[in-house]
Amino acid sequence: MHPALQGILTILVGVGGCVGYFYLSNQFxxxxxxxxxxxxxxxxxxxxxxxRPWLFLLPALLALGTYLAYPVYETLRLSLTERSTLPDGSTxxxxxxxxxxxxxxxxxxxxxxxxxxxxxxxxxxxxxxGFGLLAAQLTDRLKWGNIAKSLIFMPMxxxxxxxxxxxxxxxxMRPIEQEQIGILNALYLNFGGEAPIAWLTVPFWxxxxxxxxxxxxxxxxxxxxxxxxxRGIPEETIxxxxxxxxxxxxxxxxxxxxxxxxxxxxxxxxxxxxxxxxFDIVFAMTNGQWETQVLANxxxxxxxxxxxxxxxxxxxxxxxxxxxxxLVWNVRNARREMx
Amino acid sequence: MKxxxxxxxxxxxxxxxxxxxxxxxxxxxxxxxxxxNVEAVLAAFAEASGNDVRxxxxxxxxxxxxxxxxxxxxxxxxVFPQPGLAAxxxxxxxxxxxxxxxxxxxxxxxxxxxxxxDLGTYAGADGSDSLYGLFFKVDLKSLVWYSPExxxxxxxxxxxxxxxxxxxxxxxxxxxxxxWCIGLGxxxxxxxxxxxxxxxxxxxxxxxxxxxxxxxxxxxxNDPRIVAAIDEFGVFAGNDDYVAGGAxxxxxxxxxxxxxxxxxxxxxxxxxxxxxxIPAFFPEGTSVGEDADFFYFPAFASKDLxxxxxxxxxxxxxxxxxxxxxxxxxxxxxxxxxEIWMARGGFLTPHKGVDTSxxxxxxxxxxxxxxxxxxxxxxxxSDLMPGGIGAGAFWTGMVDYAGGKSAQDVADAIQDAWxxxx
Amino acid sequence: MDIAGQKSSLSWAVxxxxxxxxxxxxxxxxxxxxxxxxTSDQISTSGWWKAMFPSEQNLTxxxxxxxxxxxxxxxxxxxxxLFAPDKDAVISEWGVSSREIDSYTAGDTAPLKKGGEVTLxxxxxYRMENTEPFTGTRGTRIFVTATTPPEFTLRNYxxxxxxxxxxxxxxxxxxxxxxxxxxxxIIPIVIAAFAAYALAWMEFPGRALLIAIIVGxxxxxxxxxxxPLLKLHNEIGIGKGYLGAWLAHxxxxxxxxxxxxxxxxxxxxxDIIENARVDGATEFQIFTKIILPLSFPALASFAIFQFxxxxxxxxxxxxxxxDSTGDTTVMTKQIVELLGxxxxxxxxxxxxxxxxxxxxxxxxxxxxxxxxxxxLAGSVK
Lengths: 339, 422, 381
Hints:
The complex is a heterotrimer. Chain B is α/β, with parallel strands linked by helices.
């Protein structure tokens, strides 16, 4: 069979199966199990109404349970056990208490990853939100604002692998006697730098060169959302301020920003979550070397290179721990909304 | 005569297996030109056996094989570049021992057969030793590549000893050139080229016993003798005058990029120490033997350590048992399988029964000479160490060293990582 | 008018800052795009921002081999041109030794080390003369400093897309990627839409708790799920393949999908739904006839997100999809392979990176209107 045909067939089966479930299960509920007719019509309608939400939710709950909740549980379990192979080839898990965590805390690489993650958390959400707000405000009343916005938003569509290649070219370094093909070194030499620098290998500062990639990707997201929030501010408040003699900067900082504070927080936290999970950029550009390790990459290293599942899972739990405040905040917001 | 007999035996083995044509999957580290080479070998097996043979290569072989084996979805046959990793996998019960008699066959038909048997024999999950791996395709590591015409232009001679090599390096610096191109970059495996340097230099400064003790960690990684070998590497890589781009560029330069400096105009460097596979990354149209050539990475004349040679090889193992997988192993024992790849280039083999006249280019014969003239042959140590060291802490440690950390600190950190594994 | 003057100077400032900002954001991508149309020599000798100008390169070229020499009187002659016939280049300085690559200028005659001499013109044509026959198997190396006009080429794209050694792989990978991407986009939407409707408009015990859990799951890092799930897939017989990849993408994409869609659906006018209920429509009908059409922007927005994410994904494909037969390889894997084997070749890197981002970019520009609308519904509250 031609692969394209096979592809289409697989797609049809996959999508069809999913749509079919919802249609048939509802039909079954309405026609067979609890038909809203006959002498039990009233009772059946009530029963159907109790069952139906779970019918609607079932696939989602199954998928969420298997693909997200179960791994969290499994990781917690692995982080507290030590794995070994028995003579018959099967694997045994022995309770290890907090040994894995202790071992992890003794590793300098872990602390390096934690420190770097803290820096990422401090810098990336702030810069991306800041640039996003700036871009949103500047393009707000511009004729070509929409074009400008989609160009700034474009990096969102680029894969991390693609972005890594793009920025490797930006940071490229050639020996001094050759012409630089990386724009950063070319500019650096042009503005009085003495020798080209391998930017990604300068400890500490290289973290910021990696962060730049994520800021570049995430700014568009922040901009789009903040720009809509800015549009949502009632005209009257702004006009009133202008009449009172406020200059554009005062209008922006004293009137607009306070009014969209909630949205800024949402954007900030969303980017924070992305930052905590950041993996691909570091993996593709430095692989955590030259002191650029981050938690997600440290975990990957432990899991797949050192083959140390205990410590790998322990570091995964640290990531979980770090996102917990955001999780709680999210949940509280969601509950407040419900009321 | 023996040749024909062997071929006949193989052919018979293969016709016997024709009865049960099945799918054989092979997973290995080769991509690009080498992928075509290995596929040519496998195609010959497919044709002879009637099996459907599929090869998949991966740049992140070391990680992917772990994921697949853990989950139970490994290929039938996996080709490990690091015997150390294969030993790990064997101890966790992921490998199937090779057919009975394979060890005897290797002993008989491979040059230095016993050492290849030892390298392929690991303890299984139950702790007992068996032969799990067959070596097929060997690389020579102790080579220095150069451009003969550039040497000619500058009037340099090929150094016969390490002292002469260092003198030549100083000479090149004095003439206003840069002697070496060194690059450690290799994506997720960044750092490995430096481990070869350290191993080569350890073999040139200490006896083979020290090397063996170091590989098995009976001699600890932060032993002064090992630290000295790391610093010996620093003599080359840590010297701004010696390395194209300066010492700071070593860690970040891609190993695939760095040999190109030999061929640029003006030359960025005159020498490049790398294994026998590196011509695949020379600029397009470079003819090995004419535009580029190599010499033996020499030993110190002042030390009586003979002519040590560092090598490596890929070990073929069965990660998902099937009769056809064993048939494939049997096929790899035939001279034909070796000769297919030999003819395509970049392939050395310890197989004594092959027809060496089929070598794709004359340089391979020269490499074979280096191999034969060696007084000591040692397998790449980092490939024998546990994966977490040989494909982990050692790599990152060398990057740290190239980045300016002291050899002692780096060696201490690697030993700590090793202790943590025990 | 003071105010007007101030206003226009401010608007100038705004325009200029936006131009700068956009420039800054575009610059890296443009660099890669331009590089993908240049030859590897050009890329490695001059920055891409100089692509529009003639560039000066140091090249190592070779004359014809001695076997092509002709005898004129008592002189042995080799004549020819160093460049390919269709290449324009102007040589300024040159040399015959790698130590002295700039000792002669165009038109000079230089003695050769092995005897005889060579004269080289600015256009690359040369004439070698010797009283003895030239020996050896290869031509002489000539090092030139040449200025070549700006030149763009499609050869990189030809190599990546149509070169027989990888075009088959690319075409297959393209279809495979679509086979992964389309269901992995649609299935979570369908599942999430039903779930979101239940969470938004149906009353049942535990609703608030469920919403909280889903919001919590938004932050679970993907990497820790890989091994437990692959094991599970093997135990229940899915193994590695499309089904597993769809399910994995569905699982990982669901929290965001449900979160976005529920937020959007909650905002739909209550009256419409109440009226429909009063009119006797079943919940299934309300959902398919009213809610789905009204939620189109949010559905489209998530679809684009999920599409971009699955198209660009490598990790899930490696772990859940690509089995040992290699039949199910995807674009990103193909690109990463190219990176691995051609790591030093910027022209290949740049081109393959662009090939991989072309489809997402097209989808993105065609649909960004919806993307924005749905995003807003999800996050601005």
